[in-house]
Amino acid sequence: MLKTAALVLAIALLGTVPATDPDRAFASARDAVSAATYPRYASYVVMVRYTSNGHPYVQGWSTFEDLRRRVVHAQTFSSYENMHPHVAKGINFGFGGVGPSGVQPPPDPLSRPYKPPQQDTQDTPLGMVSFGINQDFGLARNAPPITATPNAHDVDPDAPAPPLIGTTHVDVKLYDVTLLGDETDNGRTLVHLGLQPLRAPKANRLRELWLDEKTGLPVRARVAGIGNAPPWNDVEWRIDYDVEGGAPYLQRETALAPLAAKQGVATDVSVSYENVTTEAIPKGYERLGFGDRVGVTDP
Q1: What are the backbone angles phi and psi of residue 190, rounded to the nearest 5°?
Q2: Burial of residue 147, with CB atoms counted within 10 A of its CB: 0-12 exposed, 13-18 middle, 19 or more buried
Q3: Domain count across the chain
Q4: Alpha-carbon Rg of the chain, whole angstroms?
Q5: Could you tell me the residue range of the domain that residue 234 belongs to?
Q6: Has residue 41 been placed in a domain?
Q7: Residue 4 maps to a domain
């Protein structure tokens, strides 16, 4: 009985954020994200919204990811707003095809009648994206990089997933971390950290973190760029997370400055992750699809 109580206490303390030691607070965030367990697969729609040359653009890429191997496949051609009228408020999770509390999730955009896009994605101002919903900007220790593939079959249910085991580690100090105070958000206490990279600022992109004091998981962040190419990695972004099953998922990424786009600039740029469904075995249609490009991918 005492052993059980001690184990429960140890698990509870794993994510608790030390409110007076900035380096330990950041280490607790890394501990919490590294310990998070994801389902094997997720399907979702990456919606990109912006305005360029006075024209509003709304593009969405149906995306399928092996969350354990961190391999992403996005459909080559985007679906436009008339194929995706649902505007999500936060992540709409479903498990095994059923949403929270047994509510059926919104229809998958692939189930709608196909309508050719108005423009080829390579001709639109910001082009195609293939982004992973579990991007943590280096918080998880020893996690493989998120990679994108044009071949849906590469997100393969027969490929072994990395074992979920703990590892010992010695942290290399990546940032000069400062405590910027506590904040209250929806009844939660958030520990606000400032981060200044000590090396490789293009790789170590975190600049601010807001952590749930009780779990250590990120709620918000400010990062120096998303994606692996300009203009996505040229400006700073606000990152909002949603937590499901003890694991952080991207909810929304909002550009904090205009992006240089083809023949102009893109303003009010946001990326949201919608119609999210997690599953143990992928649906048959999710393994179909082959394109000649992946567009902008995770760094």
Answers
A1: -110, 135
A2: middle
A3: 1
A4: 19
A5: 15-162+171-297
A6: yes
A7: no
Q: What is the pLDDT of residue 169?
A: 54
- Tell me the C-alpha distance between 82 and 255, whole Å: 24
| 123 found inside a domain | yes
Exposure letters 38-52 (e unless 16+ CB within 10 A, then b): bbbbbbbbbbbbbbb
Structure tokens at 284: 């048959």
Please check whether residue 8 lies inside any domain of the structure: no
Tens of pLDDT along 237-261?
999 999 999 999 999 999 999 999 9
Report the predicted TM-score, pTM, of the whole model to 2 decimal places.
0.80
CATH number of the CATH domain containing 158: 2.50.20
Strand segments (E) across the chain: 41-52, 55-66, 71-74, 79-80, 94-95, 129-130, 147-148, 175-185, 188-197, 206-212, 218-223, 237-244, 247-255, 259-261, 264-279, 296-297
How would residue 198 be classed by pLDDT, with cut points 50, 70 and 90? very high
Q: What is the pLDDT of residue 290?
A: 59
For the cut 90, the answer to whether the pLDDT of residue 96 exceeds it is: no
| Per-residue pLDDT at 115 | 35
Contact between residue 201 and residue 193 where contact means Cβ atoms under 8 Å apart: no
